[in-house]
Structure formats: C-alpha cells, structure tokens
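Case study.
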Amino acid sequence: MKITDFRLDTYVMKMDRLVGDANLPDGTEMMPGAILRIGTDEGLEGISLGFGTGIAELFPAIEGCDPRDTVHLWKRIRDWLHKAGNEGMASLSFSAIDAALWDLKAKIAGVPLWQLLGGREGRVKAYASGLDYCLSDEDLFRFYRRMAERGVGAGKLKVGLDLKADMRRIGIMQEALSIASDKPELMIDANEYWSARHAIRWMARIEEKFDIVWVEEPAARHDYLGLRQVSDSIRASVASAENLKSLEQVSPLLANRSASILNLSANHSGVTGCRQIAQAAHGFGVSVSMMNCQANFMAHVAAALPNHTMMEVVDPGREHCLTFDNWIEDGHIVMGEAPGFGIGVREDVLAMLQADPPQGKGKFPFPRREGAGLYIVPPQPGEVPWATTQPEE
Amino acid sequence: MNEGPEALDLRVETVTIVPVEGNAEICRLLLGTNVGIVGMSLCDKATGLIAAKLGNSAIAGKDPRAAPALYHALHAADAAPPAIAALDIALWDAKSKTEGVPLWRTLGGSRGPWNVMRGDAKGQAIHVQLEGNLDQDLERIAAAQSAIARKIVEPVIALTFPANWNHPDDAAKVIAHAQAIERHFDIAFIELSLPLDSTGAHLAIGKVIRAALCNGRGFGRISDFRPALECRALDGYLLDVDALGLTGAMVVANAAAAYDLPVLLAPSMGNLALHLCGAMPNFAFAMWDGRLTASGTGRADQSQSVPGLDATLGDDPGIGLEGFS
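After joint prediction, the assembly is written out as follows.
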C-alpha cells in the first residue's frame, strides 16, 4: 500500500458559545478548523483534525511510502524539520500528518485506534473543563452540572486574575460536580499568566480552602526551574507541557521534576510524538493527561497509555461538520468500534462553512494578556459576566 | 457513523512451552488463541515454566492485541520480569500476526538495515567482552579492531566490563581499567555491570573517561532505570528485551530520548529485538546474539538476514520465529 495524495480542508467555525481564559477573559466564539485526509492507492484514507496548513511542504517526505510505517515516517519528517525547527505551522502540519497516518494504519487493520495501540478497552476517565473565564457564575454551574449528570466528578476551572472571585467560582464548580462524586476532583488552570512566585502565593491561599488536584501552567511553559519551585512549594501537582511541541522541549520538565502531570495532545508532534512523551514520562514516574480536542479523537491514544490519569472534555460545539464514534458515560469517554479515530466528515456542512464563513466575536489563538508573569491586570469593567472583587472603600 | 468490520473476538486460550530442538536450555513459549493464531517467544527453560504458569493464570482469556496494557498490568501485580518479558514478546507476536504483518511494521518501524554489533568482524561495530586482566583485554581489543579495520575506517568499539565488577565500590577499578584502555584505543561505548541505581559511581566514572557509559542488561523493571534517568548518570542505555520485554524497552528508550541519549539492544534470543530498531527514536546498535546460531540450527529467525555488516528484517508475520526449530 502506498500513500498517493492528500486533501486539506480549512474552514472557520463559530462555536455554540464563548470560550476564554485569563489571557482572554471576554472569550472568543470563533475558531479555525482543518481536516486533513491522506489517500492511498487502495482507496483507504486517513483523517486527522488540526490547524496545520503546511502539509504540502512536508508531504514529499511520505509520498509513495507505506502508511503503516508510522514511526519510521514520523522520524523522516522530524529529521526533515530538524534545522528549520519543529515549531509553529510546521509542527502543526507534522502533527496532523502523523495523526492521519495512525488513523489510516488502524483502518487498514480494521480496528479502532485504541486497540491498534494496545489498549485494553476503549474507555478513558474524563474531567470537565469549562474554558470558562467568560461564563457567568450561573452558566459555570450549569456547565459542570451538565457534565456531572453524565457521571463526571472532576473539573478544571480557568483562574488567574481575581483571587477572591476565583475561589468563589471553584466553590461553584465543586458544588455542581458534587452530584457525581462525594469528593469532586478540583483542578485549576492559570494558562501561564502567573509568575512562579505569584503562583506560590495565590496557591497558598487557595489551598487554605480547597484540596486542589493540580494547577495547570502556573508559570511560563519554559520556566522549568520556576515550575519546580511551584511544585516544591504547594500541595497540588503542577501540570504543564500543553504548549510545548516535542519530547525535546518537554525533557527539561522531566529532568528537573518540574511537573507531576504532563498535558498532552496531538500537537505534540502527532500521535507518535504524544506517545513518545507519555512513555518517557512513564520512565520518569510522571503521569500524563490528554487535552481536549475536537470529537475527543485523542481519547484513542489516552486509552493505550500506561500513565494516563484523565482526559479533558469540553462542550463548546466544535464538531458541526464532523461525525464521531464516542460519547461520555459514567464519567468516561467511551469509544465505539469504528476503525481508526472513528471520525467522519459531513461534507455538506463543511462545504457550507467554506462557502459562507460564519462571523462572530473574537479570534483564535488567544494572545497573552498584559502583565503576564509580571503583575496582575484584573478584569476590567464589562470584560467578564461575573462579579469581580472590588476594592474596599 | 461509518461502521467498521465486525469486531474480532480474539482471546488467549493456553500458554505452553516446547523445547527447542538442539538446545536443551531454550524453549519456545506458545500462546494459543481461539482463532488459531499462535504467539511465540523464546526464553530459557526456567523462565518458560514461570511464564506458562503466569500466562495461564493472568493472560488466558485476554485479547493479545492489548499487549502493552497486559504488560503493565503484570508488572503492577509484581510478577517476575523475565516471565513478563517472554509473555510480552509472544503477545506482540500474536498481535502482529492478527494484522498479518511483521512485528516491525506493527510497531510502525521499518525493515532496516540496522546496525549490528558483533564480537567478530561481521558487524558494523565490534563488541568485546573484557575479562579484567589489562594485558589480555588490550590484546582482545587489538585483535577485534584489526579484524574489522579492513572494512571500516573508524570502527565503533564497545566494551563490556566483567560481570563480577558489579558493586559500586568497583568504580575505582573500572576507572583505572578504562583509562588504561583509552590510552590505546578510541572506545565508543563501555557497558558496566554496576547496579543501575549506583548513580554516584556512574557519575564518578563518567567524569574521567571519554567513552559513553551504558548499563541496563538484565534489568527488567522500568522503575530500575529511574535513578539513572533522573540524574542523567549514563550516556546510553542497554535494553535487554529478554528481561524488559518489548513494551518496557520502548518506554525506557523514549525516556532516554528525553536527553537525546542512544539506546543499544542487548543480545536477545533469536535476535528478535531487531524488530524494535525502527520503532525507537534513538536506536544506535544491536548486539548480535549467537546463542542459537551456534547450536547448529542455522539462523534463529528466517525473517532476518545479515548479508553484510547489518541486519535487515523480512516480511514473515509477527516476529518470524516459525522458520526456526
């Protein structure tokens, strides 16, 4: 079997609601989408979802090759990118190609990807993530309660700009999740807005009231010594690596024991790169958590990792032009028997999105907010739909 | 949603061992399944007996396609690593036979050619087992080097230090021996026999010698490697698939890749570890195993060929052990 061609469809989607974090508190409802299809001489095609638009530059590295040799082809692309750098659009394209090849490999074998990768069952523990800085307290409660009604007893709140409000909202999340668990697992995410010292100070106050399982990106992604400081100073685990792209970039976190949880995704140099980092982390005794993604397709990879804790699930509505074969049940993402990632394309919806791109508020990716790592710029009037903390007169 | 083919109900039914003809010490471990596919691995007889018992109690009834998950579950239950390794290899063999492809392809790798390291002049590199007597060891290295130098300008030389230099207090002896050898030869790798958690000894030796320090042969738990990994105490890892299994070897290889360190494959029965070469990002050399070829049965694995100085894998499904008896 040989790889013959590819098709990349890019589009813009308007989600069903706003998503936001400390860097973009008022949120965005717009997001770019891309569907990569890699074709073969035998008619099967592999599909992946991502943002990469540099596929044409990398495709010659795999054209004519057997798509089942996924790791071998991954190494070819990695080496191809060595001098230019596995960064930015090149990295996203690399990731998209690799993921599509794994989808194809599983389809050739006629099995869902979790099974091809050696998982025992197509089931992964889920945690709810509201991407919720832009949600009112009422909508925040409704989101986590909706997830709890599906058995999800763990949640992650966006925090960072207003300590007292953050603590109030952690309590709201906790209460909403309490129907699924007597002791909901609580996580928070500062999205690199704090400095290490700021994280230590604010976490001390948060931990006076809450038992936090992990704090995500409490300092900048590359500040592995700062993250180590945070790790050594708080009770919660530190989670990081979401915005790194490869094992080479993640390795200082492992070598310095900077994080107890690595957040992984297909953007970590594809399925191959993601598995490589997870396995390396396992060698160092560190756990991993799969990040949210469209159609939860990376749950297939998470299900086959020995050190996976739980996967982030969100519901802003990013799958309008997709079909998929997984669902949330009893607090888990459950995958069906469809081969590969189990993703299909609703061609009519995709064509409509491409012909008449929707309009809406905001844009993606988020910029970094003023003051990040230096000082806190609290939410400005009208910036968030919840009650901010006001100075005492 | 697009429907896939009907899901295959695949289960291990029995785990047995059969002796290898012409070699009383080695046996084949066989995983029989409900669909007729048989997963195979090779191991010593004592390990085989333990593995068969373990397999019949813990693997029977399980889907062999979940090889890595079963491996981690067996380790979590604290079973004997060599027995887990034998089961793991047989599970991977069954998994790739189910797909109808060679194991290297199941793992996503490629057929090679791969660098092989041998004790004679038939590999890309030479591997010399030292005995501990300096004069004799220098002679051994010189003889091996002169044999391979006819084919390779700058041959890679790897030394394995004596197995009984296995205490952290042997560090001074290792340093003296290695420095004396390095006065005469450019050594690429030195394999030590110290415990893997001898990080102080490893670091002390690494400070004063030029060669890349390797260790790992015989260690079967991923956690065995953690002390060395956390301190970057070694310059490379020797992965022993017969102890660590294919699944564990891949985990340790990726952990070593976090430092961009190379991995070498220790000799494996039937040289089946060669299937891993393309699935690891940092494979450097595989040490050739002569145990089975020396028994007069010919090549252990007809799916492998060593036409020149390296090894190329074939297209037999699974590991390719069917041709061996």
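Observations recorded in class. Chain B touches chain A through 47 residues (CB under 8 Å). The longest strand of chain B covers residues 23-33. We will return to this complex in the next lecture.
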